[in-house]
Amino acid sequence: LQSQPYIRKCGNGCTEYKLLIVTDLDRASKAGDWTWRAVTRQGLLKLDIHRNPHVSIKWDPDRNLTSAMNVKGRAMELSDLTVFHNRVLTPDDRTGLISEIRDNQIIPWVFLNSGPGNTTDAFKCEWMTIKDGLLYVGSHGVEYKTKHGSHRNNMWVKTVTSKGEVTNKNWIGIYNKMKAFVGIPEEGYLTHEAVQWSARRGRWFFLPRKASKTPYNETVDEKSGTNLLISSTNLDQFEFKTVGEVVPERGYSAFAFIPDTNDDLIVALKSKEVGDSTATYITVFNIEGQVILQDEELSGNYKFEGLYFL
Predict the structure, then answer these.
(1) Mean pLDDT to the nearest integer, 31-40
(2) What is the total count of domains within the chain?
(3) Is 79 known to sit in a ligand binding site?
(4) Would the annotation count 232 as a binding residue?
(5) Using one digit for the tens of pLDDT, what is the confidence trace for 146-166?
(6) Burial class (CB in 10 A: 0-12, 13-18, 19+), 266
(7) For residue 83, is it within any domain?
(8) Is residue 231 part of an annotated ligand binding site?
(9) Which domain, by its residues, includes 42?
(10) Known binder of ligand: residue 16?
(11) 186 a known binding residue?
């Protein structure tokens, strides 16, 4: 029941695809007294496999998506994109709402609350993927610690049916096992915003945003980007590769497999947040970690965190 993405063969081993990206502007999402906004940008990605492969992207003008629904004055901090049963869906990491984007409007569909589903807080949605006909929605996958205590609500994952029925899944053991596998001690952390299931390969793929061997520190965290590509068939045993060089200020915030490439080629977004400065980069590489398009900065100094092929 999935719609097929736009694919146009343009001869000589060249293929064109339509790509949509969306922002999480954090507090800058507030656009008026009762209005919050996100920016969407559509592009045309051209893949030329005869030129060793070569990728170029042309972008259309930006469009604003606005909403009045908010939680404590925050909203429209959109963190991913997918197409599920022919609907373009996006999660808001502030309100816990999964909404449909249709005709440049945002239409709320399902609310997710945090942790095992019995909390009073909204789920901090950071990634989405589809497996076995279910929409999977996950968060950072780390324990949240403050001087007042700690919780593991962001270590749960939600599955949603096409009818909007939600099931809460405990991924604490999975996240901890993955963290240990890549050599991060218990006091450190591995944060996730970019996760996909590949039905073609029967594997989960994770591009962590941050990796740290020490406890969370806001200033250090801004420069804890990673180049890990982790994969697993059963979420019990893991493999990892590295992709290019680590640029500490940049961490993966979303990725998608380029259609029709046997889930071999990945296009990914990297976000930078250092002080008040934000930027987004787009890159393309294969699942062996070979880079095809080096980090290319996107115009506008926006933080784009969702990406999908339409």
Answers:
(1) 95
(2) 1
(3) yes
(4) no
(5) 788 889 999 999 999 999 999
(6) buried
(7) yes
(8) no
(9) 7-309
(10) no
(11) no
